Amino acid sequence: MASPPRRVSSPLLYSLPSLLFHASPIYPSSFFSRFLSSSSSMAPQEAAAAASVTQKTDEAAPRKNRVTVVGSGNWGSVAAKLIASNTIRLPSFHDEVRMWVFEETLPSGEKLTDAINTRNENVKYLPGIKLGKNVVADPDLVNAVTGANMLVFVTPHQFMEGICKRLAGKISGDVEAISLIKGMEVKMEGPCMISKLITDQLGVNSCVLMGANIANEIALEKFSEATVGYRENKEIAEKWVQLFSTSYFIVSPVQDVEGVELCGTLKNVVAIAAGFVDGLDMGNNTKAAIMRIGLREMKAFSKMLFSSVKDSTFFESCGVADLITTCLGGRNRKVAEAFAKSGGKRSFDELEAEMLQGQKLQGVSTAKEVYEVLSHRGWLQFFPLFATVHEICIGTLPPSAIVEHSERTPK
Ligand SMILES: NC(=O)c1ccc[n+]([C@@H]2O[C@H](COP(=O)([O-])OP(=O)(O)OC[C@H]3O[C@@H](n4cnc5c(N)ncnc54)[C@H](O)[C@@H]3O)[C@@H](O)[C@H]2O)c1
After folding, report:
1. How far away, in angstroms, is 359 Cα from ligand 1 center?
2. pTM here?
Protein backbone atom coordinates (compact mmCIF):
# COMPACT_ATOMS: atom_id res chain seq x y z
CA MET A 1 0.00 0.00 0.00
CA ALA A 2 1.43 3.38 -0.95
CA SER A 3 1.86 5.79 1.92
CA PRO A 4 -0.34 8.91 1.93
CA PRO A 5 1.22 12.21 0.81
CA ARG A 6 3.39 13.88 3.43
CA ARG A 7 1.94 16.93 5.13
CA VAL A 8 3.90 19.90 6.43
CA SER A 9 2.20 21.83 9.19
CA SER A 10 4.59 24.59 10.17
CA PRO A 11 2.48 27.44 11.63
CA LEU A 12 5.16 29.89 10.50
CA LEU A 13 4.67 28.89 6.91
CA TYR A 14 0.91 28.99 7.18
CA SER A 15 1.24 32.60 8.32
CA LEU A 16 3.48 33.59 5.42
CA PRO A 17 1.44 33.07 2.28
CA SER A 18 3.93 35.02 0.15
CA LEU A 19 6.44 32.25 0.71
CA LEU A 20 4.13 29.85 -1.05
CA PHE A 21 5.00 31.36 -4.36
CA HIS A 22 8.64 30.37 -3.99
CA ALA A 23 8.52 26.58 -4.22
CA SER A 24 11.42 25.43 -2.08
CA PRO A 25 12.98 22.00 -2.35
CA ILE A 26 12.54 21.68 1.45
CA TYR A 27 8.78 21.32 1.08
CA PRO A 28 7.05 18.71 -1.04
CA SER A 29 5.05 20.10 -3.94
CA SER A 30 1.90 18.60 -2.41
CA PHE A 31 2.32 21.21 0.33
CA PHE A 32 2.32 24.13 -2.10
CA SER A 33 -0.48 22.67 -4.13
CA ARG A 34 -2.80 22.93 -1.12
CA PHE A 35 -2.60 26.71 -1.34
CA LEU A 36 -2.47 27.22 -5.07
CA SER A 37 -6.00 26.12 -5.81
CA SER A 38 -7.97 27.55 -8.71
CA SER A 39 -11.28 29.35 -8.51
CA SER A 40 -12.96 26.13 -9.63
CA SER A 41 -15.13 24.20 -7.21
CA MET A 42 -13.17 20.99 -7.87
CA ALA A 43 -10.05 20.42 -5.79
CA PRO A 44 -7.42 19.16 -8.25
CA GLN A 45 -4.88 18.60 -5.51
CA GLU A 46 -7.28 16.14 -3.95
CA ALA A 47 -7.53 14.36 -7.28
CA ALA A 48 -3.72 14.25 -7.43
CA ALA A 49 -3.47 12.99 -3.88
CA ALA A 50 -6.14 10.40 -4.53
CA ALA A 51 -4.31 9.31 -7.65
CA SER A 52 -1.10 8.95 -5.69
CA VAL A 53 -2.64 6.56 -3.17
CA THR A 54 -4.87 4.59 -5.52
CA GLN A 55 -3.63 1.08 -6.09
CA LYS A 56 -4.37 -1.20 -8.99
CA THR A 57 -7.00 -3.65 -7.81
CA ASP A 58 -9.20 -6.21 -9.46
CA GLU A 59 -12.26 -4.04 -8.85
CA ALA A 60 -11.98 -2.62 -12.35
CA ALA A 61 -14.66 -0.31 -13.72
CA PRO A 62 -16.96 -2.02 -16.24
CA ARG A 63 -15.06 -0.54 -19.15
CA LYS A 64 -11.43 0.38 -18.76
CA ASN A 65 -10.25 3.49 -20.53
CA ARG A 66 -7.56 3.12 -23.14
CA VAL A 67 -5.39 6.16 -23.90
CA THR A 68 -3.45 7.09 -27.03
CA VAL A 69 -1.18 10.13 -27.30
CA VAL A 70 -1.12 11.50 -30.85
CA GLY A 71 2.27 13.21 -31.06
CA SER A 72 5.71 12.51 -29.66
CA GLY A 73 7.68 15.76 -29.67
CA ASN A 74 9.03 17.41 -26.54
CA TRP A 75 5.68 18.05 -24.83
CA GLY A 76 4.06 14.98 -26.37
CA SER A 77 6.68 12.75 -24.76
CA VAL A 78 6.29 14.43 -21.37
CA ALA A 79 2.50 14.11 -21.63
CA ALA A 80 2.91 10.38 -22.33
CA LYS A 81 5.18 10.06 -19.28
CA LEU A 82 2.67 11.85 -16.99
CA ILE A 83 -0.23 9.78 -18.29
CA ALA A 84 1.64 6.48 -18.11
CA SER A 85 2.55 7.10 -14.47
CA ASN A 86 -1.19 7.28 -13.75
CA THR A 87 -2.64 4.57 -16.02
CA ILE A 88 -0.38 2.01 -14.37
CA ARG A 89 -1.89 2.79 -10.96
CA LEU A 90 -5.50 3.66 -11.68
CA PRO A 91 -7.87 0.69 -11.98
CA SER A 92 -10.12 2.43 -14.49
CA PHE A 93 -7.36 2.62 -17.12
CA HIS A 94 -5.48 0.07 -19.18
CA ASP A 95 -1.80 0.25 -18.25
CA GLU A 96 -0.55 0.62 -21.81
CA VAL A 97 -0.36 4.11 -23.33
CA ARG A 98 0.18 4.14 -27.05
CA MET A 99 2.07 7.08 -28.54
CA TRP A 100 1.88 7.87 -32.24
CA VAL A 101 5.29 8.79 -33.65
CA PHE A 102 5.83 10.76 -36.85
CA GLU A 103 8.51 8.38 -38.03
CA GLU A 104 12.02 9.70 -38.53
CA THR A 105 15.36 8.08 -39.19
CA LEU A 106 18.00 9.09 -36.67
CA PRO A 107 21.58 9.95 -37.76
CA SER A 108 22.56 6.43 -36.57
CA GLY A 109 20.16 4.95 -39.17
CA GLU A 110 17.82 3.68 -36.45
CA LYS A 111 14.09 4.45 -36.64
CA LEU A 112 12.87 6.82 -33.92
CA THR A 113 10.03 4.44 -32.99
CA ASP A 114 12.46 1.54 -32.49
CA ALA A 115 14.74 3.72 -30.40
CA ILE A 116 11.82 4.77 -28.16
CA ASN A 117 10.58 1.20 -27.70
CA THR A 118 14.05 -0.23 -27.09
CA ARG A 119 15.33 2.42 -24.70
CA ASN A 120 12.03 3.65 -23.29
CA GLU A 121 13.25 7.14 -24.10
CA ASN A 122 12.54 9.64 -26.89
CA VAL A 123 16.18 10.12 -27.78
CA LYS A 124 15.48 12.95 -30.21
CA TYR A 125 12.84 15.09 -28.49
CA LEU A 126 13.26 14.24 -24.80
CA PRO A 127 16.69 12.68 -24.30
CA GLY A 128 17.68 11.38 -20.89
CA ILE A 129 14.12 10.85 -19.56
CA LYS A 130 12.49 7.43 -19.16
CA LEU A 131 8.88 7.51 -20.36
CA GLY A 132 7.59 4.52 -18.38
CA LYS A 133 7.69 0.94 -19.64
CA ASN A 134 3.97 1.06 -20.41
CA VAL A 135 4.47 3.67 -23.16
CA VAL A 136 4.47 1.95 -26.56
CA ALA A 137 5.51 3.97 -29.62
CA ASP A 138 3.66 3.25 -32.88
CA PRO A 139 4.42 4.89 -36.27
CA ASP A 140 1.05 3.83 -37.73
CA LEU A 141 -1.45 6.59 -36.90
CA VAL A 142 -4.64 4.60 -37.46
CA ASN A 143 -3.30 1.56 -35.62
CA ALA A 144 -2.18 3.77 -32.71
CA VAL A 145 -5.69 5.15 -32.13
CA THR A 146 -7.59 1.90 -32.74
CA GLY A 147 -9.32 0.74 -29.56
CA ALA A 148 -8.54 3.92 -27.62
CA ASN A 149 -11.44 5.83 -26.10
CA MET A 150 -9.31 8.75 -24.84
CA LEU A 151 -7.18 10.58 -27.41
CA VAL A 152 -4.59 13.18 -26.41
CA PHE A 153 -3.59 15.41 -29.34
CA VAL A 154 -0.19 17.04 -28.95
CA THR A 155 1.54 17.92 -32.22
CA PRO A 156 2.59 21.29 -33.65
CA HIS A 157 -0.68 22.86 -34.82
CA GLN A 158 0.28 23.09 -38.48
CA PHE A 159 0.11 19.27 -38.78
CA MET A 160 -3.32 18.83 -37.22
CA GLU A 161 -5.42 19.35 -40.32
CA GLY A 162 -3.54 16.51 -42.09
CA ILE A 163 -3.77 14.25 -39.04
CA CYS A 164 -7.54 14.84 -38.74
CA LYS A 165 -8.00 14.05 -42.44
CA ARG A 166 -6.22 10.73 -41.97
CA LEU A 167 -8.35 9.88 -38.93
CA ALA A 168 -11.72 11.09 -40.26
CA GLY A 169 -14.31 8.32 -40.25
CA LYS A 170 -12.08 6.03 -38.18
CA ILE A 171 -12.98 7.31 -34.71
CA SER A 172 -16.17 6.31 -32.96
CA GLY A 173 -18.45 9.04 -31.58
CA ASP A 174 -18.06 7.99 -27.92
CA VAL A 175 -14.32 8.72 -27.96
CA GLU A 176 -13.22 11.71 -25.87
CA ALA A 177 -10.37 13.96 -27.02
CA ILE A 178 -8.18 16.57 -25.42
CA SER A 179 -5.92 19.03 -27.23
CA LEU A 180 -2.61 20.18 -25.73
CA ILE A 181 -1.89 22.08 -28.95
CA LYS A 182 -1.22 25.80 -28.92
CA GLY A 183 -2.31 27.44 -32.17
CA MET A 184 -5.25 27.86 -34.49
CA GLU A 185 -6.22 27.43 -38.12
CA VAL A 186 -7.44 30.42 -40.08
CA LYS A 187 -10.04 29.53 -42.69
CA MET A 188 -12.13 31.58 -45.11
CA GLU A 189 -15.00 31.62 -42.64
CA GLY A 190 -12.77 32.77 -39.76
CA PRO A 191 -10.46 31.39 -37.07
CA CYS A 192 -10.89 27.76 -36.03
CA MET A 193 -9.45 26.60 -32.72
CA ILE A 194 -7.78 23.18 -32.77
CA SER A 195 -10.35 21.68 -30.36
CA LYS A 196 -13.06 22.70 -32.82
CA LEU A 197 -11.11 21.26 -35.74
CA ILE A 198 -10.99 17.95 -33.85
CA THR A 199 -14.71 18.07 -33.09
CA ASP A 200 -15.69 19.09 -36.62
CA GLN A 201 -13.47 16.62 -38.45
CA LEU A 202 -13.61 13.62 -36.12
CA GLY A 203 -17.08 14.09 -34.62
CA VAL A 204 -15.84 13.84 -31.01
CA ASN A 205 -16.00 16.16 -28.01
CA SER A 206 -12.67 17.84 -27.25
CA CYS A 207 -11.41 19.44 -24.04
CA VAL A 208 -8.10 21.36 -23.91
CA LEU A 209 -5.18 21.36 -21.48
CA MET A 210 -2.93 24.43 -21.36
CA GLY A 211 -0.70 25.99 -18.71
CA ALA A 212 2.69 27.27 -17.63
CA ASN A 213 4.28 24.07 -18.87
CA ILE A 214 7.78 24.15 -20.25
CA ALA A 215 8.05 20.46 -21.07
CA ASN A 216 11.66 19.91 -20.00
CA GLU A 217 10.93 21.20 -16.49
CA ILE A 218 7.93 18.90 -16.04
CA ALA A 219 10.01 16.01 -17.37
CA LEU A 220 12.29 16.61 -14.36
CA GLU A 221 9.21 16.53 -12.11
CA LYS A 222 9.46 20.16 -11.04
CA PHE A 223 6.23 21.50 -9.57
CA SER A 224 3.84 23.17 -12.01
CA GLU A 225 0.16 23.70 -12.75
CA ALA A 226 -2.12 23.35 -15.75
CA THR A 227 -5.74 24.12 -16.68
CA VAL A 228 -8.25 21.81 -18.36
CA GLY A 229 -10.88 23.71 -20.33
CA TYR A 230 -14.18 21.88 -20.80
CA ARG A 231 -17.49 22.69 -22.44
CA GLU A 232 -20.38 21.16 -20.49
CA ASN A 233 -19.52 17.76 -19.15
CA LYS A 234 -17.66 18.18 -15.88
CA GLU A 235 -17.34 14.42 -15.42
CA ILE A 236 -15.20 14.21 -18.53
CA ALA A 237 -13.08 17.11 -17.30
CA GLU A 238 -12.56 15.27 -14.00
CA LYS A 239 -11.42 12.20 -15.91
CA TRP A 240 -8.79 14.24 -17.73
CA VAL A 241 -7.73 15.89 -14.47
CA GLN A 242 -7.29 12.43 -12.94
CA LEU A 243 -5.31 11.19 -15.94
CA PHE A 244 -2.81 14.07 -15.89
CA SER A 245 -2.52 15.00 -12.20
CA THR A 246 0.51 13.96 -10.20
CA SER A 247 1.98 15.27 -6.97
CA TYR A 248 4.11 17.70 -9.03
CA PHE A 249 1.61 18.48 -11.81
CA ILE A 250 -1.57 20.08 -10.49
CA VAL A 251 -4.46 20.32 -12.92
CA SER A 252 -7.60 22.46 -12.46
CA PRO A 253 -10.77 22.33 -14.59
CA VAL A 254 -12.39 25.50 -15.95
CA GLN A 255 -15.61 25.62 -17.97
CA ASP A 256 -14.22 27.76 -20.79
CA VAL A 257 -12.67 25.83 -23.69
CA GLU A 258 -12.16 28.86 -25.93
CA GLY A 259 -10.70 31.03 -23.17
CA VAL A 260 -8.19 28.38 -22.09
CA GLU A 261 -7.22 27.55 -25.68
CA LEU A 262 -6.86 31.16 -26.78
CA CYS A 263 -4.65 31.93 -23.76
CA GLY A 264 -2.32 29.06 -24.73
CA THR A 265 -2.31 30.14 -28.36
CA LEU A 266 -1.93 33.91 -28.09
CA LYS A 267 0.79 33.97 -25.43
CA ASN A 268 3.23 32.67 -28.07
CA VAL A 269 2.79 35.94 -30.00
CA VAL A 270 3.59 37.93 -26.85
CA ALA A 271 6.63 35.68 -26.27
CA ILE A 272 7.97 36.69 -29.69
CA ALA A 273 7.63 40.34 -28.64
CA ALA A 274 9.43 39.56 -25.34
CA GLY A 275 12.23 37.93 -27.33
CA PHE A 276 12.65 41.09 -29.44
CA VAL A 277 12.94 43.12 -26.23
CA ASP A 278 15.62 40.75 -24.93
CA GLY A 279 17.49 40.81 -28.24
CA LEU A 280 17.57 44.61 -28.11
CA ASP A 281 18.76 44.56 -24.43
CA MET A 282 15.87 46.75 -23.34
CA GLY A 283 15.65 45.36 -19.82
CA ASN A 284 13.03 44.00 -17.48
CA ASN A 285 10.77 47.05 -17.19
CA THR A 286 10.26 47.08 -20.94
CA LYS A 287 9.64 43.35 -20.99
CA ALA A 288 7.07 43.64 -18.20
CA ALA A 289 5.34 46.45 -20.13
CA ILE A 290 5.21 44.30 -23.26
CA MET A 291 3.78 41.41 -21.22
CA ARG A 292 1.09 43.67 -19.74
CA ILE A 293 0.10 45.08 -23.13
CA GLY A 294 0.19 41.55 -24.54
CA LEU A 295 -2.10 40.23 -21.81
CA ARG A 296 -4.53 43.06 -22.46
CA GLU A 297 -4.61 42.21 -26.17
CA MET A 298 -4.96 38.48 -25.42
CA LYS A 299 -8.02 39.18 -23.31
CA ALA A 300 -9.59 41.66 -25.75
CA PHE A 301 -9.01 39.40 -28.78
CA SER A 302 -10.41 36.34 -27.00
CA LYS A 303 -13.53 38.16 -25.83
CA MET A 304 -14.11 39.81 -29.22
CA LEU A 305 -13.99 36.37 -30.87
CA PHE A 306 -15.99 34.51 -28.21
CA SER A 307 -18.24 36.46 -25.85
CA SER A 308 -18.39 33.38 -23.58
CA VAL A 309 -14.70 33.75 -22.58
CA LYS A 310 -14.43 34.41 -18.83
CA ASP A 311 -12.19 37.07 -17.24
CA SER A 312 -11.23 34.60 -14.49
CA THR A 313 -9.62 32.25 -17.05
CA PHE A 314 -6.79 34.78 -17.50
CA PHE A 315 -5.84 34.25 -13.85
CA GLU A 316 -5.54 30.47 -14.19
CA SER A 317 -2.30 28.67 -15.07
CA CYS A 318 -3.23 28.83 -18.77
CA GLY A 319 -3.38 32.64 -18.58
CA VAL A 320 -0.99 34.87 -16.74
CA ALA A 321 1.24 32.01 -15.52
CA ASP A 322 1.80 30.60 -19.01
CA LEU A 323 2.42 34.10 -20.35
CA ILE A 324 5.12 34.71 -17.74
CA THR A 325 6.93 31.39 -18.20
CA THR A 326 6.87 31.67 -22.00
CA CYS A 327 8.18 35.24 -21.98
CA LEU A 328 10.96 34.25 -19.57
CA GLY A 329 12.04 30.87 -20.83
CA GLY A 330 10.24 29.48 -23.87
CA ARG A 331 11.58 28.64 -27.32
CA ASN A 332 9.61 31.44 -29.06
CA ARG A 333 11.31 34.02 -26.86
CA LYS A 334 14.71 32.43 -27.46
CA VAL A 335 14.49 32.41 -31.27
CA ALA A 336 12.96 35.91 -31.38
CA GLU A 337 15.88 37.17 -29.29
CA ALA A 338 18.32 35.74 -31.86
CA PHE A 339 16.25 37.29 -34.67
CA ALA A 340 16.46 40.75 -33.06
CA LYS A 341 20.18 40.35 -32.33
CA SER A 342 20.71 39.70 -36.06
CA GLY A 343 18.83 42.95 -36.80
CA GLY A 344 16.13 40.92 -38.54
CA LYS A 345 18.62 39.74 -41.17
CA ARG A 346 18.36 36.00 -40.39
CA SER A 347 14.99 34.40 -41.06
CA PHE A 348 12.91 32.64 -38.42
CA ASP A 349 12.97 29.45 -40.52
CA GLU A 350 16.77 29.45 -40.54
CA LEU A 351 17.01 30.19 -36.81
CA GLU A 352 14.39 27.56 -35.96
CA ALA A 353 16.30 24.88 -37.88
CA GLU A 354 19.60 25.90 -36.27
CA MET A 355 18.43 26.40 -32.68
CA LEU A 356 15.60 23.92 -32.10
CA GLN A 357 16.81 20.57 -33.49
CA GLY A 358 13.51 19.59 -35.08
CA GLN A 359 11.25 21.25 -32.50
CA LYS A 360 8.76 23.71 -33.96
CA LEU A 361 8.09 27.39 -33.28
CA GLN A 362 4.44 28.32 -32.90
CA GLY A 363 4.55 32.08 -32.27
CA VAL A 364 5.50 33.24 -35.76
CA SER A 365 2.75 31.29 -37.52
CA THR A 366 0.23 32.24 -34.82
CA ALA A 367 1.17 35.94 -35.26
CA LYS A 368 0.42 35.58 -38.98
CA GLU A 369 -2.90 33.84 -38.27
CA VAL A 370 -3.92 36.49 -35.74
CA TYR A 371 -2.94 39.22 -38.22
CA GLU A 372 -5.17 37.65 -40.88
CA VAL A 373 -8.11 37.64 -38.46
CA LEU A 374 -7.42 41.26 -37.44
CA SER A 375 -7.20 42.51 -41.04
CA HIS A 376 -10.21 40.53 -42.14
CA ARG A 377 -12.35 41.95 -39.34
CA GLY A 378 -10.94 45.51 -39.50
CA TRP A 379 -9.51 45.23 -35.97
CA LEU A 380 -5.82 45.99 -36.67
CA GLN A 381 -5.89 49.38 -34.92
CA PHE A 382 -7.13 47.77 -31.68
CA PHE A 383 -4.19 45.37 -31.44
CA PRO A 384 -0.94 47.29 -32.01
CA LEU A 385 1.28 44.71 -30.32
CA PHE A 386 -0.09 41.69 -32.19
CA ALA A 387 0.05 43.58 -35.51
CA THR A 388 3.60 44.83 -34.89
CA VAL A 389 4.92 41.37 -34.01
CA HIS A 390 3.75 40.00 -37.37
CA GLU A 391 5.11 42.97 -39.31
CA ILE A 392 8.52 42.54 -37.65
CA CYS A 393 8.49 38.79 -38.37
CA ILE A 394 7.91 39.39 -42.08
CA GLY A 395 10.48 42.20 -42.26
CA THR A 396 8.11 45.13 -42.88
CA LEU A 397 9.20 46.73 -39.59
CA PRO A 398 12.54 46.56 -37.73
CA PRO A 399 12.69 44.74 -34.33
CA SER A 400 12.91 48.11 -32.52
CA ALA A 401 9.34 48.86 -33.68
CA ILE A 402 8.12 46.57 -30.90
CA VAL A 403 8.29 49.44 -28.41
CA GLU A 404 7.59 52.26 -30.84
CA HIS A 405 4.34 50.76 -32.11
CA SER A 406 3.01 48.54 -29.31
CA GLU A 407 1.65 51.15 -26.95
CA ARG A 408 -0.57 53.05 -29.36
CA THR A 409 -3.38 52.76 -26.90
CA PRO A 410 -6.44 51.56 -28.76
CA LYS A 411 -9.59 53.63 -28.52
N1 LIG B 1 7.47 21.86 -25.71
C2 LIG B 1 6.82 22.51 -24.78
O3 LIG B 1 7.40 22.92 -23.76
C4 LIG B 1 5.33 22.70 -24.91
C5 LIG B 1 4.61 23.01 -23.77
C6 LIG B 1 3.23 23.17 -23.85
C7 LIG B 1 2.60 23.03 -25.09
N8 LIG B 1 3.33 22.72 -26.19
C9 LIG B 1 2.58 22.55 -27.45
O10 LIG B 1 2.52 21.16 -27.74
C11 LIG B 1 2.42 20.97 -29.14
C12 LIG B 1 3.43 19.93 -29.57
O13 LIG B 1 4.73 20.40 -29.29
P14 LIG B 1 5.94 19.45 -28.93
O15 LIG B 1 6.84 20.26 -28.05
O16 LIG B 1 5.47 18.14 -28.41
O17 LIG B 1 6.59 19.19 -30.37
P18 LIG B 1 8.09 19.54 -30.86
O19 LIG B 1 8.10 20.92 -31.44
O20 LIG B 1 9.06 19.21 -29.79
O21 LIG B 1 8.36 18.47 -32.00
C22 LIG B 1 7.88 18.53 -33.30
C23 LIG B 1 7.05 17.28 -33.53
O24 LIG B 1 6.43 17.36 -34.81
C25 LIG B 1 6.60 16.12 -35.47
N26 LIG B 1 6.51 16.33 -36.90
C27 LIG B 1 7.42 16.82 -37.76
N28 LIG B 1 6.92 16.84 -39.01
C29 LIG B 1 5.66 16.35 -38.93
C30 LIG B 1 4.62 16.13 -39.87
N31 LIG B 1 4.76 16.43 -41.15
N32 LIG B 1 3.44 15.63 -39.44
C33 LIG B 1 3.25 15.35 -38.13
N34 LIG B 1 4.19 15.53 -37.18
C35 LIG B 1 5.39 16.03 -37.59
C36 LIG B 1 7.96 15.65 -35.01
O37 LIG B 1 8.11 14.29 -35.22
C38 LIG B 1 7.89 15.99 -33.54
O39 LIG B 1 7.21 14.99 -32.84
C40 LIG B 1 2.59 22.34 -29.78
O41 LIG B 1 1.33 22.85 -30.11
C42 LIG B 1 3.21 23.17 -28.68
O43 LIG B 1 2.86 24.54 -28.78
C44 LIG B 1 4.67 22.53 -26.14
Report:
1. 6
2. 0.86
